[in-house]
Amino acid sequence: MLHIRKSFIAALAILLMIPLLLPQSVSAKPSASKSAGAKANAKIIYLTFDDGPTAHTGQLLDILDQYDAKATFFMLGPQMQQYQKATKRIVADGHGLGLHGVTHVPSKFYQSAYSGLKEMQQANVTLNKVAGVKTSLVRTPYGSKPYLKSSYRNVLLAQGGFHLWDWNVDSEDWKYKKDHQKVYNSMMKQIHNVQKSGTTPVVLMHDQEATLKVLPQLLKTLKAEGYQFKVLTKKVQPVNFWNDKR
User: Fold this and answer.
1) How far is CA 102 from the centre of its chain?
2) What is the 3-state secondary structure (H, E, C) of 99-166?
3) Does 50 participate in catalysis according to the annotation?
């Protein structure tokens, strides 16, 4: 009888403990959900630099390092050959890699359906020789519209296996080389508008001396606003003027 009473008391104690345990397991779900939601709602931005590397790339990389920011560089074949140390550092620092061709001359790059493909392939060979890596990301000179016709894109993307990138924020740093505040104000306005539309900002800048003047202010503000600086890869769906997702 005593044995039965002890067993009953033990069973009753277990039953009484169950409600105490349930709230803990239930409350863990909202916590995990909140964490996942925070990641999903993270403010991501892609900074990109064209036409390099140059004599100013080292300073540009120093500024990015200072703010723990990553960017993607769309580079020209001859520039990679001339500034090999900068090219290697871009790779070593973990920045994104893209190709911008060889000549940067529309009449040459867009001469035929295959001229652009050859330039990108040649630039990739240079990148591999200098830094031991290759990339499938490309940005055509002056953007893909209006020069890169449908047949040209098919050759570059389908046959060449490249992924085409343009931008949705134009810094115009090449146009206003002395008006740094104008460049900054324009970029921030565009970035906010793109972000509000539910799209991730892809910012076009150039690897040049003038950009060094506005970059620290830009990075400081973006970091304060909670943006995360990511690099473009072949796994990221391309943003281009033709809405070509290949």
Assistant:
1) 22
2) ECCCCCCHHHHCCCCCHHHHHHHHHHHHHHHHHCCCCCEECCCCCCCCCCCHHHHHHHHHHCCCEECC
3) yes
Instruction: Look up the pTM and report it.
Output: 0.83
Q: Identify the pLDDT of residue 42.
A: 82
Could you say which residues of the chain have pLDDT below 50?
1-40
**Mean of the per-residue pLDDT values for the chain?**
87
Q: Which two tokens stand for residue 6?
A: 């002890």
Query: Is 206 designated active site?
Result: yes
Nearest Cα residue to 127 out of 95, 174, 79: 79
Q: Which residue has the tokens 């580079």?
A: 75
Residue 28, classed as helix, strand or coil, is helix
Question: Tokens at residue 189, please?
Answer: 């306005």
Which listed residue (50, 51, 166, 173) is catalytic?
Answer: 50
| Candidates 51, 163, 206, 244; catalytic one | 206
- Decide if 244 contacts 154 (C-beta within 8 A): no
How do 43-52 and 169-170 pair as beta strands?
Answer: unpaired
